[in-house]
Design goal:
OB fold (Dihydrolipoamide Acetyltransferase, E2P), 179 residues, alpha+beta, elongated
């Protein structure tokens, strides 16, 4: 008795390539990067460690190009790069918050803030709001080079204060110091 004939596969089933590293390398690299971003929230915030590790693993993978460990090492390197990216993005946007959390600047204590206006002044009744892109903070006699955004509220209670504010001529992009 002859074996049963295999039914031919439909044209639509033949059109798609199976999920394989040889056919979709960017998919696997993106998945490794995304896994690194996901794990980055659970790992300790040490961007220098993750950056050096990523570069080291990449160099090791390129040295082992002809061996079977090349692809796993490359994927681990991309995962570490995802962790590094997440942690740099989080620390970059919260540097002012980090200074406050560490106690280097304190609420109620005077601090001089130096930066540029990130948006045109926003007028409100008897006050003006200024969005400042911070470059430096001077607190407790120490200068901290930092980044971040700060919103200041300047009270303008009377005509004299309003005239003094108008003389400053504050515009978008202007460098400013505030105490």
């Amino acid at each position: 008795m002859a074996p049963p004939a295999l039914a031919p596969r439909s044209v639509e089933a033949q059109r798609f390539v199976p999920l394989d590293l040889r056919f979709q390398p960017m998919f696997f690299l993106a998945a490794a990067f995304a896994a690194g971003v996901a794990l980055g929230r659970a790992l300790p915030p040490r961007p220098l460690l993750w950056g050096i590790s990523a570069v080291g693993v990449w160099l090791l993978s390129f040295r082992a190009r002809r061996s079977r460990t090349f692809v796993p090492l490359l994927l681990v390197g991309y995962g570490l790069a995802g962790t590094l990216h997440l942690q740099l993005a989080e620390t970059r946007s919260q540097r002012l918050q980090t200074l406050y959390d560490r106690g280097l600047i304190a609420a109620g204590e005077p601090a001089r803030v130096i930066g540029r206006l990130a948006a045109p002044p926003e007028r409100a009744p008897e006050r003006v709001y200024l969005d400042l892109e911070v470059e430096h903070v001077v607190a407790f006699g120490r200068v901290h080079c930092t980044g971040g955004r700060l919103r200041l509220m300047v009270a303008i209670p009377d005509a004299e204060a309003r005239a003094a504010y108008e003389r400053l001529g504050l515009r978008y992009g202007r460098r400013l110091q505030a105490l």
